[in-house]
Automatic annotation (TrEMBL):
UniProt cross-references to PANTHER family, sorted A to Z: UDP-D-XYLOSE:L-FUCOSE ALPHA-1,3-D-XYLOSYLTRANSFERASE-RELATED
GO cellular component terms, semicolon-separated: Golgi apparatus
GO molecular function: glycosyltransferase activity
Species this chain originates from: Patiria miniata (Bat star)
The protein's name: Nucleotide-diphospho-sugar transferase domain-containing protein
InterPro entries named in the record: Nucl-diP-sugar_transferase, Nucleotide-diphossugar_trans, UDP-D-xylose:L-fucose_XylT
One Pfam family linked to the record: Nucleotid_trans
Domain Nucleotide-diphospho-sugar transferase, chain residue ranges per copy: 121-324
Family according to the record: Belongs to the glycosyltransferase 77 family.
Amino acid sequence: MAVENLYKVLFFLQSAAFTLFIINSYRSPISVHTPVERLRAQSHCERKPNETREIFVTARPTVSQTNEVVPMVFRGPLSNCSLADIKKRPGVVMLTTANLAFVDVVLNMLESVRRVGVCINTTVIAEDRKAYDLLLKYAKSDPAVHVQLTNSGEMDVIEHPRRHRSQYYGIMNKRQSYMLALLEQGLEVLFSDSDTYWFRDPFPHFQGDFDMCLRGHTPTRIIKKTDFCAGFIYLKPTNATIQFVRGWVGVLDSNKKKGSYTADQSVMNGLLKADKPVHVNIKMLEENLFPWGPTFFDSKWQKENHPTVVMHAASIRGHPAKLSKFKAFGMWHVNEKALML
Ligand SMILES: *[C@@H]1O[C@H](CO)[C@@H](O)[C@H](O)[C@H]1NC(C)=O
Ligand SMILES: *[C@@H]1O[C@H](CO)[C@@H](O)[C@H](O)[C@H]1NC(C)=O
Ligand SMILES: *[C@@H]1O[C@H](CO)[C@@H](O)[C@H](O)[C@H]1NC(C)=O
């Protein structure tokens, strides 16, 4: 009787050991000595699971259940998107711009986009050569992130205060021509300031019949009254949008020729209120889903648990103030001091 029980226990132990062996071999394929596995163990693409970096993701081969190595899908280091992911949203681009002083802010925004899992063909226009080199270094050959050097004259690398109008608005007022060039290629454009933070996919909010979709100070548009924010706009390449943006660029350029750097947003609002050069159909973004800085960072508003889609740190003025807010709210993911060429 005792002997029979001993056999049962031994049999159980043996089965358990075998099961453990299978689980272990499955979890750590590197320890299994097939030629393919040995190759994989040496590959640069293999990293220890805990070896994560803040904003850089390493592509690695996918291993199927049968341990065959499936062809590697290259995912961009900033976006974690493959070219196939980008092609799933044809005809749509995201556009943002930065000089060197705001490269970290752009990288932080892109990191928030990556965390949401949105794949979008993104163009980042660098306003100076150093910003270009730095962005290019981090984007590498990310299929989602295209870095371009400005085609309208390089700007200073530092952040200028608003009162230095030719530098501050100089940078802001170049962006409308970039939008126009994309619209003229028939692309839908999501223009986003670099100081936005994405919590959810905003694209479902850009559905419907409109020329431009953006946020205003009032919940509904009251023509001749409502002021809009020019820092986060979804534009469709309709005739009306293209004529409107051409008109906008025209006013900014003619002011500049007269030595006057008017705020891009004031010019946009002036034209929208006057329905010039054409009337544009506007879809308004909900203020609780697309909050601006002062609202979002208010502790009372935070307690209300709004399902924020994209936060725009508008009205939080200056790079240091923006960073300290992002950091205080756990929304800063870049080691800005380590950013270098
Ligand atoms: C990258 O994307 C793939 C596919 O969606 C996902 O399985 C993986 O977890 C992502 N990696 C990171 C670090 O987010
Ligand atoms: C991404 O956008 C650019 C325009 O900036 C366009 O030329 C390119 O074809 C797009 N790529 C994909 C994969 O859609
Ligand atoms: C847009 O304008 C072109 C000419 O500029 C015209 O041929 C076309 O019909 C217009 N399309 C719409 C949808 O109004």
